[in-house]
């Protein structure tokens, strides 16, 4: 099976500086993968490299069929449509409703038919249990509800993988559990999940593959009973 995301001996940049050397990583369809490590260890830089926000100058890299070494600027929007991205701070547009937030993304990614747009918005809101919140403004929602809407936004273009960067960082423990269970359900339905976190309790409770970033390297942890530096 061809990997959805592949790195071989890749140096990962943050700005002009290498933060991780020689990354080897293969993420298959249906995987649930954690990238863990201290703040500043390069976790988010891996996500930004996958989305072609950060360039890949050394080593091999591909995501959803696109070569990250040679990808052209005009191809990047198509790569990003194959990926759903979830952020810690939700990044909803505060001046418009939930429905308008989702419509904005669909129109920005090429959707034009009004009926198809309405149908897709209804589908993703149902997927995250927010079908009754379409006309709410973001400030009228709790943190957990806003993150559910952010997940719905990530699902709009039926991504092959969801990249979640500390998606529970601003949530209380109970709400974080609800969001993790939602991500696990999406994964069970076939969507690969790549989640950045420094919270050990999360990947102990919700098992998956674990890559640990430490000392300018990131490697898969085979024995998760070892003491990870977080």
CATH top level label of the largest domain: Alpha Beta
List low-pLDDT spans.
Answer: none
Mean pLDDT: 92
Order of helices and strands: EEEHEEHEHHHEHEHEE
Please give the largest β-sheet. 6 strands, mixed
Radius of gyration, whole Å? 17 Å
- The separation of the N and C termini measures 32 Å
- Report the strand count: 10
In helices, the fraction of residues equals 25-40%
Quickly count the domains: 2
Within the CATH hierarchy, at the fold level, what is the topology of the largest domain? Rossmann fold
Class from helix and strand fractions: alpha/beta
The CATH superfamily of the largest domain appears as P-loop containing nucleotide triphosphate hydrolases
Protein described:
By secondary structure, the protein is an alpha/beta fold. Helices cover 32% and strands 25% of the residues. It contains seven helices and ten strands. The strands form two sheets. Strands 6-7-8-3-9-10 form a six-stranded mixed β-sheet, with helices on both faces. The protein starts with a strand and ends in a 10-residue tail after the last strand. The model has no long low-confidence stretch (mean pLDDT 92).
Secondary-structure blueprint:
Layout: E1 5-14, E2 17-27, E3 32-37, H1 43-50, E4 60-63, E5 66-67, H2 76-81, E6 83-86, H3 98-108, H4 114-127, H5 143-155, E7 161-165, H6 173-188, E8 192-197, H7 200-205, E9 209-214, E10 217-220
Parallel strand pairs: 3-8, 3-9, 6-7, 7-8
Antiparallel strand pairs: 1-2, 1-4, 4-5, 9-10
Helix pairs in contact: 4-5, 5-6
Could you name the key traits of this structure?
230 residues, alpha/beta, Rossmann fold, 6-stranded mixed sheet, 4-stranded antiparallel sheet, 7 helices
